């Protein structure tokens, strides 16, 4: 029996070793994974268990049969000899319903595992889906805001499901009224499934027809229509999202079920005003002020409508960010609206993102900004503005690799976002990689030739490449296409000063100072021209005004890629300004 006890102890050690293979070192993972795939580990465990039983039986029965002791040794030797043979057979063959067949080799891997590539995985075992713009069947072009709003709501609801990777609204809207074949669209967006359909609003009723297409094969998977009263439109949106998840075999967690149900009814007038607000907000530019009016109107109809408060926060924040209104006037209103929205619905992605933006560009409270933006991305990884603003935060800290990584994560969900493509060029500017920056800004302009921000940035990149004539030409185009927006005017003024055209620089400077008497013009833009005119005292005078008014881009003064303030760095006043902003360790 001592033999049996020793064998059992040895078997326990072997079993623990085999089970420990479930978490092998990373370099051995492919090998152990192949052992498991070919069932070699399972055969080893079963063979060892059977061999143990045979040896135990021999140890107990053979002495009673008066067999010599060498017979037990023979049994042990035969079982040990058969062990490697069993493993070789398990590696080479498998038992199937059709009989014994040679095991097929594993398909070549496209690359190392995600953890070995250093990528930060966002969602495991995901199905990727794009929701194309729902067609407006009303026959009234004035109802486009409604169909676009329903598309955005469906995207937002699907993005609440952890097991789905959902393409952002910005990229999906590129295919509005597109005649491209669905497999081609799927390849451009990198998705498995495409959802498309239509919206028909008639009186107080709304009907959504949705269908799912397997993208690469262009195979129809499912179609259904849903109809509700306008008061139940939120429940309708959640119902469609749950149906899509069910059809593509995605299991919802209890938390996701709750979030997709949410508030069931809404004041139709409030919801309509909100959809109009989002329609104008997505257009940016002059649309921001229109969106502000719509969100305010929505709150008149329903005073505790959380999405409308989030819309207010978004509108106020961007009006301050782009310099359409004084930051000191609108940023506190943005923060108040975002907090009100979160008091009503703590899971409102847009409110967390806008609050993070305000903390970044106005409060200069970096930890709070980090917390809010990360929360927004946890709730909805496909929300493009949160990736964009979070990348700004990395840029602020001088963490260029992290900024690039964040933009690239955003592009996974929003590959056709002109803002993301442009900001990647901004990071290249900060890294002084000017040819790469130029290519990136040109890529953004291919998506939207009217995007004057990218054209202005391209002018800056050309300046640093010593392509001065091209720089001036691109900046002039940006001024013309933006109705003389202050930002390209200021950059052109600084470029002209830098290349020796002081008369043109002063002309543009006088224009901005004159406009400031009747409208908001960022003091930071005026300080930039004075800096490149080598009028240091005047530059600091305007930088002080920029500090007092909390100019939107002042938080990037130490890493400012759009013609930096390098000539001022040796002045003690510059260091003092950085300390007051909270950038003393980063300057």
Brief account:
The protein is of the alpha/beta class. It has helices spanning 2-19, 29-37, 40-64, 70-92, 114-117, 144-158, 169-172, 182-189, 233-247, 254-261, 268-281, 287-301, 306-321, 327-344, 349-363, 366-379, 384-396, 400-413, 418-430, 434-447, 452-464, 468-481, 486-498, 502-516, 523-532, 536-549, 572-581; strands at 93-96, 99-102, 127-131, 135-136, 164-166, 193-202, 205-214, 219-229. A hairpin with a 4-residue loop joins β7 and β8.
Please characterize this protein's 3D structure.
Strands 3, 4, 5, 6, 7 and 8 form a 6-stranded mixed β-sheet that branches. The protein has a two-stranded antiparallel ribbon with strand order 1-2. It is globular. It is of the alpha/beta class and about 575 residues long. Mean pLDDT is about 85; it is low at about 1-35, about 95-100 and about 105-125. Helix content is about 60%, strand content about 10%. The chain has 27 helices and 8 strands. The N and C termini lie far apart (about 75 Å).
